[in-house]
Design brief:
Chain lengths: 447, 447
């Protein structure tokens, strides 16, 4: 084993950073054996140097992150601060001073991955970020390397633990969204400001990263269609159950049917209970990958948390260190296909639409006509009493038309249609006198 | 892009080899873009050159595999022949002539992986074998690289599709072993001679490979305890159901509690229906990995078949080609822990034992005494009529002792105990006059 240790600096020492430090210390011998040289922790940049951090050597702490990445003797910089700036500048500076970078920063990678990759390549160093998507689950590396000889057509995943926890609670207890969110907050699964999770920003960043890698093109978070889960109701979940489905917050990256473009989107959707993603409970993550030769693969595990994220960071760190020792780099960005990202209107899928309608003869015929006018084919129609999901369902067959005074609820499930056609259909439906309101629209995926 | 193509030779052109050839041809541009240089298929060694192989260029076929690997201008040799010899010699010769090797050969890797790795390292080339375990599922690379900074404590998996198909059929239809095997054979899931699958040799080879990588030590197939599934009965499966379990053929690699040794074994076992592996149906494979920081991860997908296996082979081929271009190699064997493999007697788990006993007072007390004498603690006892699994169960509580003329069946589920203690217990039970026979012993895992 070579004597000179590999010098590693850490930017950030929160939940993940502390865990990385702990493992670097307690597993030092194993890491050295696996890398071929010991790791020396050269410095840790923090904002609050006087905060007590158990197991973190106080003499390594500094508030001057810029000076740390400019040292010039670092082999690898591990970034676990998060956010865009000052992190982007720090990472770029690290590259310029010859260090490879391991990052867990989904927001930055999804916003500006291409320029970071270019900068790393320019300076002959690595940029790894397994921890940015789905925590401990090996996903970036399998997509980039194990499937490098295959053609990925779809990535469909639960990549946000907070929203999966909320939906799982709603499903298992019948709770509404607010109640489930409160429980998630109380248990530490949701942050005080849950916006990034519940509005889908976190999942959208991950979808952008996954789509770029899966399709060898460039996708940023701005390319990802995003809908949050705040409007999912207990009635939606009850309605999903009736269809043999469950509601999940999904990140979906797809190659178009003609292969000339891709789409990336994040939204709540119904999936059949028989789909492997349906049984992903609590805050777990799971990602389904469909590739032409490999078929359907699934990767499952904890998507967040200090230790799982640290596991992913350390896997990347070992890889970056091995490359430094061998004076080489791993595969860089692969964006050669330059496939454009199509708008949401081009996405083709199925829809579950719940309408509040006047309860009188002819309504179903009117509604069906609107769908037909927009070439959206109906799979099933279900008419039920206003108190959806309570079990007091009436007249079920298409054409039967429940007869009750006042209002009724009509649930339509379509065959595959473009999002644009569906939107146009819904606009027309809203104009019907007999349609009092569109209670919910949810996509049906995974079939 | 550099002009000189990377020269690749293929050893074997059966189901997997044909698929590799097809993808090399149809996806040539994508592969070239991902590697950074085109691949030139330099030759294909086959036994029967005149067999019609659609899409395989006849002019590339040769029966002289030795001359092919000795060409000296090959960058990578892909081996999809299988078996120990002449493959070992061919691979070694390829290394000696400067070629990296991608192999799908579990038998060879499990028998002699260490010497092949040493030979590859000696000649500065790569040896990759993702396809040797669980077909298309990325597993070797995630274990070797993504989890390189973590400590794996257990690998628990369904790694043989044939036996999973048979058990799934037995479970879903109530069929016996022979009937289910016949169906597997008719559908092409089982070979004419199913020995390698049903006796666990195939799974044992995979367990040896996984254990070696997971624990950074050397494990060969001879170190793996192996039991086939030919003795699993419909009664066992019915009994598992009563416990809220299902029966799966598992490969289990574990680090001992004191961390000083490892074990590797392959046998049918009961696992709770709530365990993610319980819902793996038909011929699918899935592997559960438990690591200290990452927690519980699962990898799921098709474990065999031409296209899935080709996907894994091509991922390795891209990696080997990239390394050749960069004049480097990937990480080699990691066996630094030198942890010994303990015998099966040291394995600690739970057991489900089904006894045929005389149906008279005091039998349960006698049986319980034998367990106590060997320090094997009983969790539950269930007594039932001879016609197991038919639902005509009688007296259930421990100590109640069903009273029927003739024989009864006693099902004992233990707490955790060593395999040695359980074996000693069973030997003693067989000596009791009141125990007419030991109908089955099955381990209970995944809890």
């Amino acid at each position: 084993m070579r004597t000179r240790p590999l010098k590693v600096a850490l930017l950030g020492c929160g939940v993940v950073g502390s865990e990385v430090t702990r493992i670097l210390t307690t597993q030092a011998d194993d890491l050295a054996a696996r890398i071929g040289a010991p790791i020396e922790l050269a410095g840790i940049a923090v904002r609050r140097p006087h905060k007590v951090r158990e197991g973190v050597p106080a003499e390594l702490l500094t508030t001057d992150a810029t000076a740390l990445v400019k040292r010039g003797d670092l082999d690898v910089v591990v970034e676990v601060i998060g956010g865009i700036e000052p992190v982007r500048t720090l990472i770029t500076t690290a590259f310029e001073h010859g260090a490879s970078v391991v990052s867990a920063n989904k927001a930055l990678l999804a916003a500006d991955g291409a320029s970071l990759h270019a900068k790393a390549a320019e300076h002959g160093v690595d940029l790894y970020y397994e921890a940015a998507v789905a925590g401990a689950i090996p996903l970036i590396r399998p997509l980039r390397e194990s499937l490098a000889g295959d053609k990925v057509n779809r990535v469909l995943g639960i990549v946000n633990g907070t929203t999966n926890f909320i939906l799982d609670k709603m499903e298992s207890t019948g709770a509404g969204y607010s109640e489930a969110l409160d429980e998630a907050t109380a248990l530490g699964y949701a942050e005080a400001d849950p916006t990034a999770d519940v509005e889908g920003f976190d999942a959208a960043a991950k979808a952008a990263i996954l789509a770029g890698i899966a399709f060898h093109t460039r996708v940023t978070i701005d390319d990802v269609h995003r809908e949050g889960l705040t409007e999912v109701t207990a009635a939606d979940i009850a309605s999903a159950k009736k269809m043999g489905c469950t509601v999940k917050m999904l990140a979906i990256c797809e190659r178009s049917a003609d292969g000339r473009s891709v789409t990336a989107r994040v939204h709540p959707a119904m999936i059949p209970l028989s789909h492997p993603l349906a049984s992903v409970r609590e805050a777990y993550n799971a990602v389904f990958v469909e590739a032409e030769a490999a078929g359907r693969l699934m990767f499952y595990g904890p998507g967040a948390g200090g230790a799982p994220t640290a596991s992913a960071v350390l896997g990347d760190l070992v890889a970056a260190c091995r490359n430094k020792l061998a004076a080489t780099t791993g595969a860089g960005e692969s964006a050669y296909t330059q496939l454009p990202v199509s708008p949401m209107g081009d996405v083709v899928t199925r829809y579950h639409i719940s309408l509040d309608v006047a309860d009188k003869p002819g309504v179903l015929a009117q509604v069906a006509m609107v769908f037909a006018e927009h070439d959206v084919s109906i799979d099933t129609v279900r008419q039920q009493g206003k108190n959806q999901g309570s079990g007091d369902e009436v007249a079920v067959e298409q054409g039967a038309g429940g007869r009750r005074a006042g209002e009724a609820s009509l649930v339509v499930v379509t065959h595959r249609a473009s999002d644009a056609a569906l939107s146009a259909t819904v606009s027309s439906l809203r104009k019907l006198d007999t349609v009092r309101g569109v209670a919910s629209i949810m996509r049906v995926e995974g079939e």
